[in-house]
C-alpha cells in the first residue's frame, strides 16, 4: 500500500465546517482510547521517568483537542505525582477547544495548561521537559517540518521524546473504516482518519526519516513510535 502524503484531511482546512470540527475534537477521546495505546505508553515508558518526590513536566506537541494531554495529567495526578502537563498546538481552533473543554476540575492548579504555540518557540524560554510527546502528528508534517520536530524534541526533552503515530497498512484501513461507520457524517473522524492512515508512514519509512540518536519502534495496534532518549532512564 503506497503512501499518499497529499491525501486531504478536512479538519486541516481553515474554512472547514466549524460544527463538524468541534464534534471531531469531542470524539477524539473515544477513538484515541481505542487505538492510541497511551495508557500503556504512560505506564511503561513515561511513569518510570517521573520523579516521585519532586516536580516533573510533560510537553504534548500538536495536542489537538487536548484529550491525550488531559489524560496524561490525570494519570500522573492519580499516581500521586507532581507533574505539569503542557499541550501546545499551532492551530488556534484546536487551542481554543482544548483550553475551553479540558477537565481541570479534579486537577491541582498548574497541572494542566494549553498554549497556542510551535515547539521551536519554546526553545527561547527557560526550562525543559522531562518527557516530550505527540500523538498522530507525524503524518501531517513534510520532511523539513519533521526534521524541525526531531531537533526541537531533542532540545526540549530531558529524559525522553516519544512521538506516536499510525502505522499504515491495508488491514488498519479496513478495520478503522468499519469501526468508525457509526461516526460517519457526524464529524470528520472517519473521513479524515482514513486519509490519515493513507498519509502515515510504514515502520521502514519512519526509520528513514529519523536522525542519529533516534529509533523507530512498532506497537499494537498499528502504531509507529519515534523514540529519543538523551540519557539512560533512572529508577522510578
UniProtKB/TrEMBL annotation:
<dbReference type="Pfam" id="PF13649">
    <property type="entry name" value="Methyltransf_25"/>
</dbReference>
<dbReference type="InterPro" id="IPR041698">
    <property type="entry name" value="Methyltransf_25"/>
</dbReference>
<keyword id="KW-0808">Transferase</keyword>
<keyword id="KW-0949">S-adenosyl-L-methionine</keyword>
<keyword id="KW-0489">Methyltransferase</keyword>
<dbReference type="GO" id="GO:0032259">
    <property type="term" value="P:methylation"/>
</dbReference>
<dbReference type="GO" id="GO:0008168">
    <property type="term" value="F:methyltransferase activity"/>
</dbReference>
<protein>
    <submittedName>
        <fullName>Methyltransferase domain-containing protein</fullName>
    </submittedName>
</protein>
<dbReference type="InterPro" id="IPR029063">
    <property type="entry name" value="SAM-dependent_MTases_sf"/>
</dbReference>
<feature type="domain" description="Methyltransferase">
    <location>
        <begin position="58"/>
        <end position="154"/>
    </location>
</feature>
Amino acid at each position: 500500500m503506497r503512501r499518499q502524503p497529499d491525501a486531504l484531511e478536512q479538519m486541516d482546512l481553515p474554512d472547514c465546517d466549524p460544527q463538524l470540527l468541534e464534534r471531531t475534537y469531542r470524539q477524539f477521546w473515544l477513538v484515541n482510547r481505542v487505538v492510541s495505546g497511551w495508557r500503556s505508553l504512560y505506564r511503561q515508558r513515561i511513569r518510570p521517568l517521573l520523579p516521585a518526590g519532586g516536580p516533573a513536566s510533560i510537553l504534548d506537541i500538536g495536542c489537538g483537542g487536548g484529550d491525550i494531554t488531559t489524560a496524561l495529567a490525570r494519570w500522573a495526578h492519580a499516581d500521586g505525582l507532581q507533574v505539569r502537563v503542557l499541550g501546545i498546538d499551532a492551530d488556534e481552533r484546536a487551542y481554543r477547544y482544548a483550553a475551553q473543554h479540558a477537565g481541570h476540575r479534579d486537577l491541582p492548579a498548574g497541572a494542566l495548561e494549553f498554549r497556542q504555540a510551535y515547539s521551536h518557540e519554546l526553545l527561547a524560554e527557560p526550562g525543559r521537559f522531562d518527557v516530550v510527546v505527540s500523538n498522530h502528528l507525524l503524518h501531517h508534517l513534510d520532511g523539513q517540518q519533521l526534521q524541525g520536530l526531531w531537533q526541537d524534541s531533542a532540545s526540549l526533552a530531558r529524559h525522553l521524546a516519544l512521538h506516536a503515530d499510525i502505522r499504515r497498512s491495508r488491514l488498519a484501513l479496513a478495520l478503522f473504516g468499519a469501526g468508525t461507520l457509526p461516526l460517519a457524517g457526524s464529524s470528520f473522524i472517519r473521513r479524515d482518519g482514513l486519509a490519515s492512515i493513507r498519509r502515515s508512514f510504514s515502520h521502514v519509512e519512519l526509520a528513514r526519516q529519523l536522525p542519529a540518536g533516534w529509533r523507530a519502534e512498532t506497537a499494537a495496534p498499528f502504531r509507529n513510535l519515534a523514540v529519543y532518549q538523551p540519557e539512560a532512564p533512572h529508577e522510578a
